[in-house]
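[step 3/7] inverse_fold.run input=structure_tokens len=151
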């Protein structure tokens, strides 16, 4: 199993019958940062996973790959190689919380050092509407006198 972040979705209107109705997500596996071991960092890889739980972009999820992806009752007859099998609420390593789904909640049962980096879901920012800039009219060429034309 791996922890991965849902980074997108795949829409396929033409697919084999057994895959009709299954949500496909782009997931990016994460790993524990190796130097300080206090945060999750991307591995730089991406996979397409079948989602059985209703997760969405920005969620950290548990995925399984290979033949293990077909070991659930819902996936045993599907031609898949990667499946979302859980949505991560929290991840703890060496008594440190390296991920907490509830960004702003204070969990008194968990020791969290104040300086601890935590992987967080980023809020989606709505792009501000661009102000339409009207093209400025080009200055008209000044008429030249006959003397300038002969010149």
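[step 3/7] decode complete -> sequence:
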């Amino acid at each position: 199993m791996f922890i991965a972040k849902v980074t997108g979705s795949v829409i396929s209107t033409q697919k084999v019958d057994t895959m009709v109705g299954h949500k496909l997500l782009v997931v990016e596996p994460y790993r524990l940062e190796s130097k300080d071991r206090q945060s999750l960092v991307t591995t730089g890889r991406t996979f397409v996973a079948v989602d059985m739980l209703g997760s969405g972009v920005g969620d950290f999820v548990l995925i399984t790959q290979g033949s293990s992806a077909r070991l659930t009752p819902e996936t045993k007859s599907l031609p898949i190689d990667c499946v979302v099998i859980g949505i991560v609420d929290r991840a703890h390593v060496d008594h440190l919380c390296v991920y907490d789904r509830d960004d702003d909640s204070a969990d008194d049962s968990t020791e969290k050092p104040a300086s601890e980096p935590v992987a967080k879901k980023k809020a989606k920012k709505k792009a501000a509407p661009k102000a339409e800039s009207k093209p400025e009219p080009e200055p008209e060429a000044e008429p030249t006198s006959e003397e300038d034309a002969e010149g």
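[step 4/7] annotate
The longest helix spans residues 146-150.
The domain at 2-100 is CATH 2.40.50.220 (OB fold (Dihydrolipoamide Acetyltransferase, E2P)).
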